[in-house]
């Protein structure tokens, strides 16, 4: 086991042949006040497959526990997976270099994290994070495509002032402006079928109960299965922020931290997963993913497939997140069949 310069945990189970290697992975980081399964379940299932497959395979398996998939710390998701695919841009590298150094790693070695050699594909197990499989009474689901997502930082600037002495018409309250815009975000979501838009974090400065907020920074997370619809909504929300700022005498700037297109999974690898699910004795239900995954970063580079495990109550990104043991066992059985099918292909 090793840690690469992006903080990804990596291990290789060597095969007996030279067939292209299979990469299995998911992420190790979590959101704030998270559950115990988002990401790490997929990594642990990769370890379980390492241990369960006793006979030597004709291909090696590389297991990767990706770092910083959620984007909590820097507002930029998928940092570990972007490092291995070579998709980290210079601005992001500058943003994260200090943290990499503080962790005892060397950002100059980021190019060495790149996936090398012939690769058969990438496989990711993950909890569904929604209620569909539970409603259908199915243990697993095969992901067909992952919705596109943008992450932005929005900053409203007005003027700090005394809460007791500044009359309403002389205020330039950044927090009141941000609040009006957040309601516009919610309205845009409700008016745009298929769109989800969330302001999940907001910081007011200077942040005192008796001071009018002089500046506010807010996050925006916006997703849609159609990239055109997502980008159109992002433009409308930028225009709404400008109009609100103008009317209130504020300044506003918006910075896009991440923009990931909707990503289909590989048809061949997904068909192989469908065969594996059937061979394990389960109905091969195909479904889209509204949540983002490292698979959307790997998919443009190597054939990629994803298998969802039923989430109890459809809950995720909260402490109540849970899975049933029998559903995890079903997903592992599908994974073992997947390896067997790949093995027969090379046999
Ligand atoms: C990852 O959990 C995401 O935000 O989609
Ligand atoms: Mn998550
Ligand atoms: Mn996740």
Describe the structure.
- Strand 1 and strand 2 (9-13) form a beta hairpin.
- The model has no long low-confidence stretch (mean pLDDT 96).
- The protein is 34% helix and 27% strand.
- With 347 residues, it is α+β, with helices and mostly antiparallel strands.
- The strands form 3 sheets. Strands 1, 2, 3, 4, 5, 6, 14, 15 and 16 form a 9-stranded mixed beta sheet that branches.
- The chain binds glyoxylic acid and manganese (II) ion (2 copies).
- One manganese (II) ion binds next to loops.
Shape: elongated
Largest sheet: 9 strands, mixed
What's the count of strands? 16
The Cα radius of gyration reads 23 Å
Question: In percent, how helical is the residue content?
Answer: 25-40%
Bound small-molecule species? glyoxylic acid, manganese (II) ion
What is the rounded distance between the termini?
28 Å
In sequence order, what are the helices and strands, one letter per element? EEEHEHHEHEEEHEEEEHEEHEHEH
Number of helices: 9
Tell me, rounded to a whole number, the average pLDDT: 96
Could you say which structural class the secondary elements and strand pairing correspond to?
alpha+beta
């Amino acid at each position: 086991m090793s840690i690469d310069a992006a903080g990804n945990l990596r291990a290789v189970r060597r095969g007996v042949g030279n067939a292209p290697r299979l990469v299995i992975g998911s992420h190790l980081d979590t959101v704030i006040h998270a559950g115990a399964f988002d990401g790490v379940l997929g990594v642990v299932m990769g370890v379980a497959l390492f241990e369960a497959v006793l006979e030597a395979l004709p291909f090696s398996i590389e297991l990767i526990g990706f770092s910083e998939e959620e984007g909590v710390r820097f507002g930029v998701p998928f940092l570990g997976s972007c490092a291995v695919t070579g998709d980290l841009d210079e601005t992001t590298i500058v943003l994260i270099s200090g943290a990499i150094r503080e962790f005892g790693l060397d950002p100059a070695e980021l190019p060495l994290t790149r996936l090398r050699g012939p690769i058969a594909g990438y496989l990711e197990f993950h909890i569904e994070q929604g209620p569909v499989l539970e409603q259908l009474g199915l243990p697993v689901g095969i992901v067909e495509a992952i919705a596109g997502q943008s992450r932005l930082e929005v900053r409203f600037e007005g003027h700090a002032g005394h809460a007791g002495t500044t009359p309403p018409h002389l205020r330039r309250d950044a927090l009141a402006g941000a609040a009006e815009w957040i309601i516009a975000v919610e309205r845009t979501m409700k008016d745009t079928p298929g769109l989800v838009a969330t302001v999940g974090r907001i910081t007011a400065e200077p942040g005192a109960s008796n001071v009018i907020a002089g500046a506010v920074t807010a996050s925006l997370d916006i997703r849609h299965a159609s990239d055109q619809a997502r980008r159109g909504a992002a433009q409308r929300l930028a225009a709404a922020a400008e109009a609100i700022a103008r009317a209130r005498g504020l300044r506003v700037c918006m910075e896009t931290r991440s923009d990931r297109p909707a990503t289909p999974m590989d048809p061949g690898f997904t068909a192989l997963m469908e065969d594996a699910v059937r061979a394990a004795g389960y109905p091969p239900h195909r479904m889209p993913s509204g949540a983002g995954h490292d698979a959307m970063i790997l998919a443009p580079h190597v054939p990629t497939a994803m298998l969802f495990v039923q989430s109890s109550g459809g809950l995720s990104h909260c402490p109540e997140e849970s899975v049933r043991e029998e559903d995890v066992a079903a997903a592992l059985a599908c994974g073992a069949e997947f390896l067997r099918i790949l093995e027969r292909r090379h046999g």
